[in-house]
Amino acid sequence: METQILQLQEQIKLARKTLLTHPVYAQINDIEGLKKFTEFHVFAVWDFMSLLKSLQMGLTCVTLPWLPVGSANTRYLINEIVTGEESDVDALGNRISHFELYLQAMEQMGANTGIMKGMIGQLQSGQTIEETIQNSNLSNKVKEFLSFTFDIAENAPLHVKAAVFTFGREDLIPDMFTQILNEIYSAHPEQVAIFKYYIERHIEVDGGHHSQLALEMVAELCGNDQLKWEEATAASIKSLEVRSGLWDAIMEH
Questions:
Q1: pTM for the complete prediction?
Q2: CA distance 182 to 3
Q3: I need a surface site. Which of 29, 123, 126, 247 has the fewest CB within 10 A?
């Protein structure tokens, strides 16, 4: 199955390159540009967490009474990733999810968290995710990005969810962005400290150990079924394309 993973990675290479070389990164050259970036990127952090929980719901037992579900190997893989994403540590060692850490980083730098928090409030009051997305003031490209992910999370088979999670996931941080961030941090350490920690932690955890676990999960779920590999590939390419649309939306602002 290692060969099939390599084939999938080869087929998504162009869409991934388009994303990693997107001109948006060159526009993030000061604290104001970083604020604007986070006000859009926060939706990618949020829907990533939602997709992760969708996978946990499908691969493990989350109802009573407990019953064994699927493969113990995939249960282990997804539960370990959830632990790291949902209850990691901040710079002081306090337990926190990556999403909540991201919101803290936005607040420290003075970015607007109002739309994101407003959407959470609407969901908590009983609105559906689709109603919340469509009733928001977000641009069409951001709505398309969110609608794609939540459609996958709610309706797609597990191997497709796993592929979108793995290959359209949050390890898409080019070296250029890290260099720019270091420069902005040097000028505004008191405003960018949490965000810098988030990115460094993110690269360490998501880009390393979690990335390998996710690859193993895709291989386990697709197995030797060629149709599943084809569906996983198509969904991965689409996920990268809608992420590029999210980056386009940032450029437009």
A1: 0.92
A2: 37
A3: 126
